Amino acid sequence: MTVTEEVSNAVPASPQVVLEASGVTMRFGGLLAVNDVNLTVREGEIVGLIGPNGAGKTTFFNCLTGLYKPTSGQVRFAGKPLAPKPTAVVKAGMARTFQNIRLFANMTALENVMVGRYCRTSAGALTAVLRGPKFRREERATRARAQELLEFVGLGKSAEHLARNMPYGDQRRLEIARALATDPKLILLDEPTAGMNPQETRQASDLIFKIRDSGLSVVVIEHDMRFIFNLCDRVLCLVRGEALVEGTPGEVQSDPRVIEAYIGTGEDDDEDDTPVTGEEGKA
Ligand SMILES: Nc1ncnc2c1ncn2[C@@H]1O[C@H](COP(=O)(O)OP(=O)(O)OP(=O)(O)O)[C@@H](O)[C@H]1O
């Protein structure tokens, strides 16, 4: 067999596992908010986390990102156990946004992104106070990178706008830019389209594809089913803290247990979040 034949017959290497959560459980007193949930995220994947209100999605996110120390279970990131501390999680290469916007309202868009960048700069407190050459060099680089990220998310022209004066959809993009400033390998987005109009939602979807194409993995919580099923490679549905179904969007959206979980809550009464089936889901 020639070398060429050997190469062409080789099984393509499967993408590396970035995040591995096993048996994650979180109790609040007598309430079991997350029960023995597993999740694997590979390089370049977009994974959706769905479930009715109170299913445990945000609690699970908080366990993954070090805000909560799970009652039991383990989170491994890039092959290593992850300390349940937000700073360690960010340093390891995981960034997130929150369900409610958490920007520095009285800072400009550029300054907000620069704050995200500081976890990757090395100037200590003394250097910062003395404002020596090293500090000034790093500050210039931080500013340039922040501007680059604003352009990436489509906010290049808003750099000097105060965060509080920006339209809602732009504030959400700004949060994403700030999270990207930490140089993550994986970004977790908690309801990135909440409160957005259909045009902003489409733009959010394009932005997430662009983030994935730049080499990151993405985990996203959303109630908007069309958004999730058109975006994700894989979807995990949580119900009452437990993993109900995990699979491709096609598998999850047609699973009767998922449909029942949503209809049972009456959540789709006035929101457009009924699981959609077949071609209906392909916007
Ligand atoms: N800090 C906390 N202390 C006590 N109970 C909590 C806490 N955080 C969440 N819970 C409870 O845990 C359960 C899961 O809540 P969680 O916010 O994770 O659900 P969710 O799926 O993100 O819901 P939603 O879609 O409404 O945001 C709920 O019953 C909630 O009331």
UniProtKB/TrEMBL annotation:
It comes from the Bacteria. Signal peptide: none annotated. Residues 19-265 form the ABC transporter domain. GO terms for molecular function: ATP binding. The keyword Transport applies. Residues 263-283 are annotated as: Disordered. This is ABC transporter ATP-binding protein. The lineage of its organism: Bacteria, Bacillati, Actinomycetota, Actinomycetes, Propionibacteriales.
